[in-house]
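Q: Now give one record:
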Amino acid sequence: MMKFKLLLFFFLCSVILANGQNEDPLEKVMITSQEGKTEVRTNEQGELLVNVSPEDVRKFKAHAAVRYSDFGAKGDGITDDIDAIAAAHAFANQHDLPVKADEGAIYYIGGKERTAVIRTDTDFGTAVFFIDDTKVENRNASVFMVSSSQEAFELDGISKLKRNQEKIDTSLPGPCLVTVNNSNVNHYIRYGLNQDNGSPQTDIFVVDKNGNVDMDAPIIWDFEEITEITALPIDEDTLTIRGGRFTTIANQAESKYNYHSRNLAISRSHVVVDGLEHRIMGEGEHGAPYRGFISISDCAYVTVKNTILTGHKTYRTIGSAGKPVSMGSYDLSVGRALNVSFINCSQTNDINDRTYWGILGSNYCKNLLYDNCSFSRFDAHKGVANATIRNSTLGHMGINAIGSGTLTVENTTVRGRSFINLRSDYGSTWQGEFIIRDCVFVPEDGRTASAALISGSYSGQHDFGYTCYMPEQIIVEDLHIDDSNHPEDYQGPAIFTDFNSQMTDESYEEKYPYVRSEKVILRNVTTESGKDLKISDNPYMFEDVEVVTE
């Protein structure tokens, strides 16, 4: 049986020439250049020992590239090649050489805890990689890690920050990615079947060497106190990863929230992934969820294009509230990242097949883009500041988001339950504006349904850790709603679903008041049913919203 290759690890293999060694807490690599043959082996501690003969050093430099076979990879689909792959990248990182997979190779990667660290351009080409997750030593260890050689450092003298602050009082060696935390304030206190106590207040933004904040991705929170603030210098040259035909042999673990991160993790800024394919085989009756085969975090300016991914089978477990829940499992994951784009991407399975989970999960991001994508969903869990979806098709899970700034959807077809769902588990909050333009909405993928553009739920009785907002302004222009398959008592599509069925008059009191929309502008909104839009099935809740039809 042909097996699988790939993935990486959230800690780095560091390399020093000659007899040097740089230790990482979880991974160690030693490269030497001694007479004799080039070989890769491990010691009793599992450390990777790589010797490259002086003759081969000269040869690899003359070829201006490193291949996996240079370090002993068999590429036969049977031999576990992860040590050879990791060694090739370690040597390439040391000498700033690109890496190329061998054409026609089939690389098998077993469950050993080993991460290949990528710091140079890599061309996987048409090589096939089987990654076998049936017996994994460390489910949190990535197979491949695209990392920076830069190191983060603490910033001193900054004790407070303000939302939309334009400058921080510091001097830096160059453009940096700044991450700030206040562990004494909790945000995103989740409500519902996966309830939790929230996460420490955090933000991430880019500054130049003089401390000027890039206002395209502004500071979004007031920090009255800062418990940690760090700066990571941004790699300004672009690292490119091309090709690769990856297949994950799915884990057979118990269906619990034991997320697997056997993936291609990216934690370096200015990275392009072009032409990668990822498929999944061997999913059975149970399995643990995945964090994302392409996992992007703590970086900026990353583009994934011309890439084919696969939705994971949905498994169920018992959530934190003691009741059954469906577990989110992702092929794309983005966390604490800015300016991340997915261009001309799709998935192998039907975007409307409900047996597969939505393909993207994201947290703490800014400026996310889908352009010419066909995916089962877009999702922002713990907030996104500014997002754009254009020229795309979204399947059964549609557009799910909370956050701030502007959410723009253009020339896109949405086939979910609503056009945009404001996630109720995080307060159905969006502090900013929605722009919907030149789009088609097919509720429930054409199943019998009552159409609603904006869905969500808010009782006003739960503290999410922040004030919750509805979009201040919603602009809908040139939208067609295909509501031809509707119930008999259908009164026409609603702008808003009933966010709180108990709030029907002024006697209802919100302990944590919801800041509702001010204005909805409708321009050329048409329906297949011929029925006009109404404000909501709960008109009282939205009676102060101004609706302008132009």
In short: The two ends are 62 Å apart (CA to CA). The chain is about 5% helix and 40% strand.
